[in-house]
Design a protein that fits this description.
This protein is of the alpha+beta class. The chain has seven helices and ten strands. Strands 3-2-1-5-4 form a five-stranded antiparallel sheet. A hairpin with a 3-residue loop joins strand 9 (299-306) and strand 10 (310-317).
Length: 325
């Protein structure tokens, strides 16, 4: 497009600009190899700026939306003729669909990049969880079971020799077996809590609220049951929020609410802690993990916070990812 415009007007330079937000950024330049110009800002109503060293510039629109601009530069002693100006305006009128496709392609690439990054984070988080389970099994239940096996061999060797020591050792074996069983149960709760599977979100979160570092009020009246992936996603997202409150918020209380609204399962976690400025503070690994987990099943996350007032984290699962169990 830049080349055609240069050939038709005798321009020494042609720039094709693409709108990105409130800026125009260089998308193509003729002649090939020329140094691209720096981005420029549009006016408050989408007006083109005064381009430096440009003979003529026209905006490119599609459905009245400014998508970019065409700008050309001619020698000082060669003004733009009416025929050349008409060619410029005609090309700009036809270029709207071209730049619209460029916009869509750029947006698609950005979306694909975000999805890839999200999936990569999810895979890394899952790998870390597997490694954590392996460590917990090795350092906890496995060591207890090894010790239990040794104690049983010792008990077997003492049968009929010392009744008092037999009873003491068997009592120790029983206590070790109970401890190993409790460790395995705790580990299983971390993978998928039995209470969540049996009773649903409300009961599982109320049980966690009783163990929280700050007083937590749970409001989930009338909440139904949902598929396992939906319930586990919301459950672990809320738990991550409560852990963040305990670590960072310096709050005196928190509240969790869950409800079904307009075909969506929604949750909100609010605290009265120190808050922060969302405009200057990005998502940490905890919040990013929540966002990734929700997006993986068609949901979304939102954060509202005010320094000195507190924070509210809301999320929802879209209807297409949610079914009543």
């Amino acid at each position: 497009m830049a080349s055609i415009l240069a050939q038709g007007t005798g321009a020494t330079r042609v720039d094709v600009w693409l709108r990105v937000g409130a800026e125009l950024r260089p998308a193509a330049v003729w002649p090939a190899g020329a140094e691209p110009r720096a981005p420029v800002r549009l006016g408050p109503r989408g007006e083109l700026p005064a381009f430096e060293s440009v003979t003529r510039a026209v905006s490119v629109r599609h459905d009245e939306e400014v998508l970019g601009a065409l700008a050309l530069e001619k020698p000082r002693n060669e003004p733009l003729t009416p025929t050349e100006d008409k060619l410029l305006r005609d090309l700009a009128s036809q270029a709207g669909l071209v730049l619209r496709n460029v916009h869509l392609t750029a947006e698609l690439r950005s979306t694909i990049d975000e999805l890839r990054a999200s999936r990569r984070r999810l895979v890394e988080a899952q790998d870390e969880e597997r490694r954590k389970i392996e460590r917990n099994l090795h350092d906890g239940a496995q060591q207890q079971l090894v010790a239990l096996s040794v104690q049983l061999r010792i008990a077997d060797s003492m049968v009929g020799k010392d009744t008092n020591k037999e009873h003491e050792l068997l009592a120790s074996v029983q206590a070790a077996a109970t401890g190993a069983l409790e460790d395995l149960r705790d580990l299983a709760r971390g993978i998928y809590p039995p209470l969540l599977a049996d009773k649903g979100l409300a009961a599982a979160l109320e049980a966690q609220a009783r163990r929280a570092a700050v007083p937590v009020q749970v409001d989930a009246d009338g909440l139904g049951r949902y598929t396992r992936d939906v319930e586990s996603a919301v459950y672990f997202c809320v738990l991550e929020c409560l852990q963040n409150i305990a670590k960072y918020a310096e709050a005196s209380s928190a509240a969790v609410s869950l409800a079904q609204q307009d075909g969506r399962l929604e949750f909100a976690v609010t605290d009265d802690g120190r808050g922060f400025d969302p405009n200057t503070t990005g998502y940490g690994t905890g919040l990013q993990g929540i966002a990734d987990r929700l997006e993986a099943i068609g949901g979304a996350l939102a954060v509202r916070s005010t320094p000195g007032v507190g924070t509210t984290i809301t999320g929802h699962v879209s209807a297409c990812a949610m079914e009543t169990a």
